[in-house]
Amino acid sequence: MAHLAFRRRLGAAVVRVGQRVAAAGATTPLGHDSLTGLPDRSLVSETLQRWIDAARPGTSLAVLYVDLDDFKLVNDTLGHAAGDDLLEHVAASMRRYVRDGDMLGRQGGDEFVLIATGWPDRDVLEGLAARLREAAGEPVTVGGVEVRVGASIGVAVWTAETTAAALLEHADGAMYEAKAGGRDEIRWHHPGRIRDRSSDRSRVALTTALPRAIERGELTLHWQPLVSLARGTVSGLEALVRWNHPDRGLLLPAEFIPFAEETGLVTAIDDWVMSAVSAQRHAWRAQGLDPYVGFNLAANTARGAGALERVLDRLTVGGLDVAHVTVELSESAGLREDECVRAFVHGLHAAGVTVTLDDFGVAYSSLHRLREVPARWVKIDRALLRHVPDDPAATRILLASLDLIRALGLECIVLGIETGAQLELLRANGVKLGQGYLLGRPMQAAAIEPLLRAAPVTQGGGATANAA
Ligand code: C2E
Ligand code: MG
């Protein structure tokens, strides 16, 4: 069989990487990553090119590109030492599936690559990808907390005339599609696709296209109503960014914010959003409207140098006041043990800007910090509502979260209300404010204006007054 011949040809050149990996902490051999002991990016691509040079048509050779989901969250919330521990655990778990003649390497950050050789058919390769995903997702205790991260995997199979660089790019592109498609998935590269739409999706393309998108005015805001559950009227709005991409149409934040966060571009997006929010507030004021408005800030934006001054400058441009504005910071950002973020949140509070802790219930947060963060609102993530009320355990978790937040004197907003049964349960349990497709989807400013006129928010009233 072709793959056996291939293995023989490689002979002694085949590196028994599985056994050879240096233990972390020991002196790291050249070409290996010091944390995990795995071959590094350059050794992986050199080896891949060498194996490709020795291959013949029909040789089974594939690249599996693995990127951990939520690694950044662990790193941000539990600290870099915990992040390093997690990477070591994941590397050790995945190593179990490395057979003689294969190579597992670390591309950098939370990205790993497995070069798989000698697999007899696609089913075996699929099984290998599934096992890698399971290995990466095994629960592990780091920083005193049990965490479980998923993995998005892209698979590209070598065909004659494909170089190592192209094969890695194909697998990376497929991995990116797995991420964009909902994460914790496996996607295959299909020959002929990479140079068209999916190449546009590559992160390199995205990082050059995003700054241009801001310059060319391709970002836009949609507004989702925040509704008083008792009265059914609009109590405020959340500004949500979208990218009006010239070729791909309207893109949701999930398609570009995670990459913008990784590359630091998110601060430029957040700056644009704040300016756009203020411009819209001026336009609404001219029409006699002054809704309570929330917008999202990334942790990177909150911890950047001069963040507080920049945010306040943008929010008060043209004499706007901040009484009707709330900054939504994800729970993991707002509660993190980070002096910069802490100073930022306290500075906002001192300046009269309300702080909302967003995405409550989905991060690994230090809950004890809830008592010292000067937030007024806590937005319960829709993950906590998804199985309510059908699943009794999910319902108990939601109700206990409401109790916890209220016991601390904070106010709850529940996100993701999609059914009448959810709405009834929340009303019955005294929740005053909610957001969700049942109550109103995100929409353009012009579409939301009639709703604002039907329930105008009086200036200085704020969401609390309106929620009552
Ligand atoms: P988020 O702050 O939790 O925003 C709420 C998200 O939930 C929005 O998604 C909204 O469309 C969606 N949603 C609301 N109700 C429902 C529902 O009933 N069912 C379902 N399935 N979804 C619902 P969107 O607009 O895609 O935004 C996703 C996330 O992107 C936001 O989550 C926020 O974290 C981030 N984001 C949005 N705009 C910005 C921004 O300007 N800056 C930053 N840094 N992040 C932003
Ligand atoms: Mg939000």
**Global outline:** elongated
Ligands bound, unique? ligand C2E, magnesium ion
Count of extended strands? 16
Low-confidence stretches: 1-25, 194-201, 458-468
Report the portion of residues in β strands.
15-25%
Which percent range fits the helix content?
40-55%
Question: Gyration radius, to the nearest Å?
Answer: 25 Å
The termini sit apart by: 75 Å
Let me know the largest β-sheet. Answer: 8 strands, mixed, barrel
Number of helices: 19
The computed structural class is alpha/beta
Mean pLDDT: 85
The strand order across the widest sheet is: 8-9-11-12-13-14-15-16
Description of the structure:
- By secondary structure, this protein is α/β, with parallel strands linked by helices.
- It has helices at residues 2-10, 17-20, 41-54, 71-78, 80-95, 122-136, 164-180, 197-200, 203-215, 257-263, 266-286, 299-303, 307-315, 331-334, 339-350, 392-407, 420-428, 445-454, 462-467; strands at residues 61-68, 103-108, 111-117, 140-142, 145-147, 151-157, 186-188, 219-228, 234-245, 249-251, 293-297, 325-330, 354-360, 377-380, 411-415, 433-435.
- It is elongated and about 75 Å long.
- Magnesium ion (MG) binds at residues 238, 296, 328, 358.
Present the secondary structure layout.
Elements: H1 2-10, H2 17-20, H3 41-54, E1 61-68, H4 71-78, H5 80-95, E2 103-108, E3 111-117, H6 122-136, E4 140-142, E5 145-147, E6 151-157, H7 164-180, E7 186-188, H8 197-200, H9 203-215, E8 219-228, E9 234-245, E10 249-251, H10 257-263, H11 266-286, E11 293-297, H12 299-303, H13 307-315, E12 325-330, H14 331-334, H15 339-350, E13 354-360, E14 377-380, H16 392-407, E15 411-415, H17 420-428, E16 433-435, H18 445-454, H19 462-467
The structure holds ligand C2E and magnesium ion (MG).
Residues 238, 296, 328, 358 line the site of magnesium ion (MG).
